[in-house]
Design goal:
heterotetramer; A mainly beta (148); B alpha/beta (387); C alpha/beta (352); D mainly beta (171); A: mainly beta; 5-stranded mixed beta barrel; D: 171 residues; mainly beta; 1 helix
Chain lengths: 148, 387, 352, 171
């Protein structure tokens, strides 16, 4: 069998999906547009942010919305020294699990920090709102460290 | 011997172009909740969840069972995701049934869905790969030449496809969940509709729908305790063959014939037209009714179209073997769910629970799904009696 | 419950880039190996075939359909597919055998992950409203999990480095491994952080490859007259998708699956765990209740080569091989799916 | 920040993933020949059927196809469709004919465009030949053949389609 040449070609799988949100996700995103963060109360009383549509433990549909703060505490973090093209920041940054004040369950978002040594578990952070908020998760243009 | 299993709950969403009021989870959940309600059960009663849908690219969510865990009450339970192209709704039901028939579980939930409005199926199916001819003309472009060959061989009159298109839409008008509601459709209207992929006209093609379908399947003991009549699973079969191979019979694929023979044998069917009371068969382009009538042994080769033209498959014409009383894929097509809808509608018939599209006295029904280049087949036979 | 025998297993070498080799070309050599092991010709000689793969690895819808071209599926065969790791295809196949619709099954999994940016591709399996649009990659999520472990004192960086060191050393005996070497925990710790608190060596590599297995009833195994091992337990569980509502330092679903599979019913000589990150091996070993007596990932595990969609199947295969070779009497294989070990499958394999 | 805007019910989510596609070994050998203006099929060592475009295996037997067979650029129409709708990612103006064509010497059809023909006269069994792009435009792609066009040869009976030798059909 003759040897095969290796034929390479780059291609992009690119498409814009048009998602309908339903009432729960829609409520959260509407809040973001108004620079408000809203959570939802789970069956055990915990406040979950972003709001889940269905309770993980009881499977019940959830509906009791709770306003929470746009400020909170870092529960865990990971330092991205070399951001990937798809990442929200081209500068080094931290992914973090952030428990917002008024919420019980941390959410995953990103934190702006100059250096890895600036952040730790327990750091206080506050949402930095995008210049124009449109009702999308990236309306929070990352969280900023709050001086203690 | 497989353990007995039965469908004890069926739930569907209303099928429509775009369910703009729900998230993906909300759509799937609605069908699942309806199935639980139909079975008189709650989430704690379910041992495992089996999820099916067509390619992840339709919604752009990879392995969606991961995100859908909470919507399907599956935290701490087994969750299996099936994908066998267009036949997936049927295969998923069969895999779900195997959870019971193997004696491993007592009651499982199975769900299949597609939220096609989130993308465009044509796009996902036509995304160009490097080094390939960019001539992919969608599913219609693939199946039209096969239909042309069927017409050549069978000498079927040109209006057979038109008749099926009208018949299934009239059936769909009896089914409030059907996407297309066209009680006023006429042969003339279908004939004058735009020719998309000659010989397939616009009105001879399925719509693009959002929707989900769910079933609860239970073991013998629990099925007998349910509030409504169970649909006993009397046979299950799947067959696959490659998309392209030299000498492949594309008009009446061997995989379909073998699959039918297998499921009939299990259900004790020797003459499907006589022994079955109705069938829900995956017909996304109208000409596939006569083609599948032959492939599934309801008519001799080359004569399927005669049954169609005689009204044998029509509820409205009092046919002896109604096909797609729910309106079929021609009336609703959330791709990943379409196969499961066929299976579920067959079950509704033998439960005597099909509303205005009930086939009177239906005791034994076929559910059928196919996918890929008409190469993946899944079928089941359900009955009002255990055996 | 009907006993299930494993009679054949083969895995291709895990390579960083399979080059000019499409799905079919990747699968065929692996299948022909397992056919040879039991002395059959092709998929016609088993009763059922089930595969596992993921369209998004190479970016083409219906990628699995090409897999059928490797089977010799003329005349047509009984066949199915899970868009999951092929370990779940084993699960589906066992149900088919238990219900009496098959006496034997061929299972294969394949993945060509090199064409895309895998950690970013996999970000799109997260919820499509809150997480996927942020493009949180899988390595970053695992790093958040590792940090929680470190902060809570549930492990140290040295513990993680020791997992890596053992993996690399074990892999020296595994001809299919992509990464192998005689490196110590100190060597690992001397490396800089990659995605803190993870070093590059804490993360599995991106690999291309396939694996295949044949399972059957005991009667069929005896008829084939080949050495076999028994699957005496198998269970899988998923848990909530909300990372914030899970205790990420534990794997509750693995515990449940281990209980269902009966892991604790006997001693475990060998365990092959699908831990794409070093700290996850520690979480899993604890959740499975393994102790000092268990040889963990003697193949090197997926830190030495990770065939997406086939690694879980390969774990079962690795345990099978150690049992039929007489190296072990009883072993546990684990497969995972989803971010931070969301979905876990546990299989117990024993000497026949 | 309270305002009277409608609540959010839908979002646009762009997803873009980049891949570096590599052709398989069988397809790569085929494409290397197409680049030189030659159509090659690959023969199954078991059933001896000739595949084009080869995808690496005989799908029926599940074995690699290795032996290469040079085929004619004449073919027979196995079936076709006249497409009247534009296809996403496809620049061709409708209506156009996409045909399943079997090259002489091959045992399986591939799809390609037909042109320079009267659409209404295209039929199963019709004989066609490739119209190639100018040689300087040839690349690793089947669209080196611009389209196939009817030629003056008698139709092939349906039962002979897919079974012609590479020497073709008696003119």
């Amino acid at each position: 069998m003759p040897e095969s040449e290796i034929l390479n070609q780059a291609f992009e799988l690119g498409y814009t999906y048009t998602r309908s949100t339903g009432p729960v996700v829609g409520r959260f995103l509407t809040g973001l547009r108004d620079q408000q963060i809203v959570g939802i109360r789970a069956s055990d009383g915990r406040v979950v942010v972003p709001p889940m549509e269905y309770d993980p433990d009881t499977a019940e549909a959830l509906s009791e919305f709770v306003d929470v703060s746009d400020e909170g505490e870092v529960v865990s973090w990971a330092w991205v020294k070399h951001p990937r093209e798809a990442h929200p920041s081209s500068q080094p940054f931290a992914w973090a699990m952030i428990r917002l004040d008024g919420a019980d369950v941390p959410m995953v978002h990103w934190v702006r920090a100059k250096d890895e040594s600036d952040i730790r578990c327990g750091s206080r952070v506050r949402a930095r709102w995008a210049d124009e908020t449109v009702g999308f998760i990236t309306d929070i243009a990352g969280f900023e460290l709050v001086g203690e | 011997m497989a353990n007995l299993a039965a469908v004890v709950g069926i739930g569907q969403t209303k099928y429509t172009t775009k369910r703009g009021d729900v998230s993906i989870a909300g759509l799937v959940r609605e069908a699942a909740q309806n199935a639980l309600d139909d079975a008189g059960l709650n989430w704690n009663d379910i041992d495992a969840v089996i999820l099916g849908k067509a390619p992840d690219m339709f919604e752009g969510v990879i392995m969606p069972e991961i995100y859908l865990t909470d919507a399907l009450g599956c935290n701490g339970k087994p969750m299996l995701r099936v994908h066998t192209a267009g036949s997936v709704g049927g295969s998923t039901a069969i895999v779900a049934a195997s959870h019971i028939q193997s004696g491993t579980f007592r009651r499982v939930l199975t769900v299949a869905f597609e939220k096609q409005s989130e993308s465009n199926a044509m796009w996902a199916l036509s995304s160009p790969q490097p080094f390939s001819t960019h001539l992919n003309a969608g599913a219609g472009g693939y199946f039209a030449p096969i239909i042309r060959e069927y017409i050549r061989r069978s000498n079927a009159p040109r209006d057979v496809g038109i008749k099926v298109a009208v018949k299934d839409r009239l059936h769909g008008a009896r089914n409030p969940l059907a996407h297309l509601q066209r009680p006023d459709i006429t042969m003339k209207e279908v004939e004058e509709s735009f020719m998309l992929w000659d010989p397939i006209r616009f009105l001879e093609s399925c719509p693009s729908s959002d929707g989900a379908c769910a079933m609860v399947i239970a073991c013998e003991e629990l099925a007998e305790q349910g509030p409504k009549a169970p649909a006993w699973i009397r046979g299950v079969a799947m067959r696959s063959e490659p998309t392209m191979y030299a000498g492949r019979e594309e008009v009446s694929p061997q995989a379909g014939k073998d699959c039918a023979a297998d499921v009939y044998k299990q259900a004790g069917i020797s003459d499907p037209r006589k022994d079955l009371d109705c069938a829900e068969v995956y017909v996304p382009f109208s000409w596939y009714e006569p083609m599948w009538l032959e492939n599934l042994g309801f008519a001799p080769e080359g004569e399927g179209w005669k049954l169609t033209m005689d009204g044998a498959t029509s509820l409205d014409e009092g046919g002896d073997i109604p096909w797609n009383p729910s309106g079929g894929v021609l009336s609703s097509n959330p791709i990943g769910a379409s196969g499961m809808i066929r299976f579920a509608e067959a079950a509704r018939q033998v439960r005597g629970d099909a509303g205005d599209h009930q086939v009177e006295g239906a005791r034994l029904a076929l559910g059928h799904a196919y996918g890929g280049g008409a190469q993946f087949f899944a079928m089941w036979v359900v009955g009002a009696e255990k055996a | 419950m009907k006993q299930i025998a494993i009679v054949a297993f083969h895995q291709s070498r895990a390579v960083a880039d399979a080059g000019a080799c499409n799905e079919v070309e990747m699968i065929m050599p692996v299948l022909s190996e397992v056919y040879q092991q039991v002395g059959i010709n092709n998929a016609q000689d088993v009763d059922f075939v089930c595969s596992g793969s993921c369209d998004y690895l190479q970016g083409a819808a219906f990628a699995f359909v090409a897999g059928v071209d490797a089977l010799g599926a003329v005349p047509p065969i009984k066949e199915s597919h899970v868009e999951m790791d092929a370990a779940w295809a084993v699960y589906e196949s066992i149900l088919k055998i238990r219900m009496g619709h098959a006496d034997s099954a061929l299972i294969y999994g394949f993945g060509k992950s090199s064409p895309g940016e895998l950690p970013i591709v996999l970000s799109q399996q997260l919820d499509p409203y809150y997480l996927a649009p942020q493009w949180v990659d899988t390595i970053s999520l695992a790093a958040l999990q590792a940090r929680l472990m470190l902060e809570q004192g549930k492990l140290t960086e040295r513990d993680m480095a020791e997992v890596v060191s053992r993996s690399r050393r074990n892999a020296l005996n595994n001809p299919n491994a992509q990464l192998a070497g005689d490196i110590s925990a100190e060597d690992v710790l001397a490396d800089e952080m990659y995605l803190s608190p993870l070093r590059k060596a804490d993360c599995c590599p991106v690999s291309d490859g396939a694996s295949a297995m044949i399972i059957c009833t005991v009667e069929k195994a005896q008829q084939w007259g080949v050495p076999f091992a028994l699957i005496t337990g198998i269970d899988h569980r998923i848990e909530t998708h909300n990372l914030g509502m899970r205790d990420l330092t534990d794997s509750v679903s693995t515990r449940l699956a281990a209980e269902g599979a009966g892991v604790a019913d006997g001693s475990v000589d060998v365990a092959e765990l699908y831990a794409p990150f070093s700290h996850q091996e520690i979480i899993l070993a604890r959740a499975l209740g393994l102790d000092e007596g268990t040889s963990v990932n003697p193949s090197g595990g997926v830190l030495a080569g990770n065939l997406m969609m086939a690694s879980g199947l390969s774990r079962i295969g690795e345990v099978f091989q150690r049992i039929v070779s007489g190296e072990a009497q009883r072993g546990v294989a684990h497969a995972t799916s989803g971010p931070c070990l969301q979905h876990n499958l546990v299989t117990v394999v024993e000497k026949a | 920040m309270s305002d009277q805007r409608e609540p959010i019910t839908g979002i646009d989510v762009p997803i873009s993933l980049k891949y570096n596609f590599t052709a398989g070994a069988g397809p790569a050998r085929f494409l290397s020949q197409v680049r030189k203006g030659v159509l090659t099929g690959q023969r199954c060592p078991r059933c001896e059927q000739v595949y084009i475009p080869p995808r690496g295996s005989c799908a029926a037997c599940g074995v690699p196809t290795e032996e290469e067979v040079v085929l004619a650029d004449k073919a027979t129409v196995q079936s076709f469709t006249i497409v009247s709708i534009p296809i996403p990612t496809n620049p061709i103006e409708p209506p156009y004919i996409i045909a399943n064509l079997v090259a002489d010497g091959a045992n399986i059809s591939f799809i390609h465009l037909m042109s320079d023909c009267v659409n209404e006269e295209v039929r199963i069994g019709q004989r066609v030949q490739a119209v190639w792009k100018p040689e300087e435009e040839w690349d690793y792609a089947m669209d080196n053949i611009r389209y196939f066009t009817p030629i003056d040869e008698p139709d092939v009976p349906a039962d002979k389609i897919g079974k012609l030798p590479v020497s073709g059909w008696g003119a």
